[in-house]
Amino acid sequence: xxxxxDIGNQALSLLGQLPCNDIDTDTNKGPSAIRRWYPQCLDYTxxxxxxxxxxxxxxxxxxxxxxxxxxxxxTYALPVDYIAxxxxxxxxxxxxxxxxxxxxxxxxxxxxxxTNIHLMYVRRVLDPSAYxxxxxxxxxxxxxxxxxxxITQNSRxxxxxxxxxxxxxxxxxxxxxxxxxxxxxxDDTWVKAxxx
Length: 196
Fold this sequence. Notes:
By secondary structure, the protein is α+β, with helices and mostly antiparallel strands. It folds into 2 domains: 4-51 and 131-177; 53-123, no CATH class. It has 5 helices and 6 strands. 42% of the residues lie in helices and 15% in strands. The termini are far apart. Strand 4 (102-105) and strand 5 (108-111) form a beta hairpin. The strands form 2 sheets. The protein has a 3-stranded antiparallel sheet with strand order 1-6-3. It has helices at 4-14, 29-49, 133-152, 155-177, 189-195, and strands at residues 55-60, 74-77, 82-85, 102-105, 108-111, 117-123.
């Protein structure tokens, strides 16, 4: 079963470092750097890739502590494990006029509606057994990029790690998008007029 140590060792391997037995207890320079960067890199990778294993549907209800002002009238609490919002579109979302306007500020959702808001967000998933292999590669690449200079003092290698992270994120994003069927959209009136 995949563990945080396995992911940390993959990052260390990308940097040409020896693996460790436990990333959480090893006091050597490499594992210590990976351990320090792990929470931030995990949140960053989840937020950038927005993988399907971390997506969660949430019904936000108006908060009793309403501090909305200016352009908004209602306050909603964000989930405690919130990382990023997912733009969840369905066929009925083609006409956006029915959707309430909302914004996330100061750890809260502000909106102009007083009803519940149905949202999909990326949550913090701490269990590595839920991760896809492509996500693990992307997370390890981000860890290697961020801890590189601290471990190796080599800025050229850090640039190589950055290029590797960009490629790993691309692959992870592409593979994650293959986890759902292709969405077909009906032709709208403009397209139908062009085809006739």
